[in-house]
Amino acid sequence: MPAAANAAASAVAPPRSGRPLLARAPFRRAPAAHGWEPRRPRAVASSSASASPPPGAAAARRRGLREYVEAAGEMARRKDGGPPRWFSPLECGGAGGERVPGAPTLLYLPGIDGVGLGLIRHHEKLAKMFELWCLHIPVEDRTSFEGLVELVETTVKSESSRASDRPVYLVGESVGACIALAVAVRNPDIDLVLILVNPGTSFHKSQLQTLSAFLNFVPEPFHLTTPQLLTFLTGNFMKMPSTVVGRGFSHEEDNTLSEITSSLLASHIFLVDILTKESIIWKLQILKKAASFVNSRLHAVKAQTLVLASGNDELLPSSQEAEKLRGAIEKCRTRLFRDNGHKILLEAEFDLATTIKGAGYYRRSKKTDFVSDYLPATPDELQQVINRDRILNFITDPVLLSTLPDGKIVRGLAGLPREGPAVLVGYHMLLGLELGPMVTGVLSSTGVHIRGLAHPFMFDKNSEQIMPDSAHFDVYRIMGAVPVTGANFYKLLADKEFVLLYPGGAREALHRKGEEYKFIIPFGVVGEDDICDVSVILLPTTMLLPKFEITMRISFPGKRL
């Protein structure tokens, strides 16, 4: 538990002296409104202040830009001059013991809005993987870039010393990504993992620089009608009604369009509250300074870094910036989301937890351990993998067969053991296309999770760049594949896992004409196990050496001696 978890100060009014503290100050739904209402930390909260968590994962998936606008607007209307502070959302309290053991700390650093609710769609899922804390910067706060870096740096050092055996995650969005990079530059010896979402390092090449140049001449609130902000706003909302596309209009669609209209109106009201002209000018100045500071020091970033870039970012040239950062930062990988906009964290088709897992960036120790750090695929992730192979499944209509103990071959997996350890050794068909339907089919029908030993090529940073999509191999990591090594093989068996091994490897999957079924030759042996039994004789403890009695049972046709 981070420091001051049981402090009496609320998340909205922390002490103004001393170092910034992590305070467990969840938010709950206000009964009379759709905003978010702060309450006192758990340790000192009265029963009247307590509230049950928001709806489950299904409801969390429905959250998006509209819910963010409502919640952020509720927070913004509380006039507060600062300073910035941390809060942990109510659903991230780890109730029910669902958080994995040894979960690392994740600190979310918001974008220009500064509210700290950018992960609203991901709170519940991330809370099972991390100790999640979000930074809230009040609308009227004017903490400098240096001050924000020092605040985050102090918290990072505190969390690192509290749990020195695990990393500290910094998830930064636009200007928050610049702050995360600055902290990494100043602390090269701290084990950090940076997740940079549409980083603001490209400010000098963006529309925002143009906006900052003439915003002083635009009266308030007409600054909200600038092309940049309108494109950002309408672009994100029009991504929400995906169910309307490709269908005729009905009462349901009419309701959806009505919701969009009301959401747009609510968002304008929100922008008036939280993106005041003075606030935007101040934060653009911070972003300009942050980008300049970080861009001149990218070579000094030693932290493990993952850049998430949107192909349709309305404010920043994020896809090009991702490539620049990948070349400048030693331990950097990128993931490009071609159809997403600047506020990708609020869009329905994006899942941050799945992205982190798929990229191989989730770890609970100094180095990634693909065996012990693995988190099983969620039902949603499994369904995504099944959908990925739906065309192949439709064309081939795969059938799974198994052999019962009496040797009878049956349709289905009744003959497959339900407990490991077990080793499944197979032959790769052309391109290894059988792998997906087999692993998902076994898991869906029996609950048996097969862990594959995969070629190291699939885990290498450089190999990602020669693929059409850098996330091409992410699905294998989500389903539990590990690099094929003797150590990983042993650890999987020690954990009583089902291990899948293809001895022919990539060469077998890419076999030439006439080479099919040439590498693996199945064989069996009838021998010692069929003619003798081995029994152990229990001896007094004074005997130092064990003795074994071998009883020979020699079988002949029709007779037994």
UniProtKB/TrEMBL annotation:
Extent of Low complexity compositional bias: 1-33
SUPFAM superfamilies per record: alpha/beta-Hydrolases (SSF53474)
A matching Pfam family: Hydrolase_4
Region span, Disordered: 1-63
Residues in Serine aminopeptidase S33 domain copies: 144-348
InterPro entries in the record: AB_hydrolase_fold, Hydrolase_4
GO cellular component, one term: membrane
Protein name: Serine aminopeptidase S33 domain-containing protein
Taxonomic lineage: Eukaryota, Viridiplantae, Streptophyta, Embryophyta, Tracheophyta
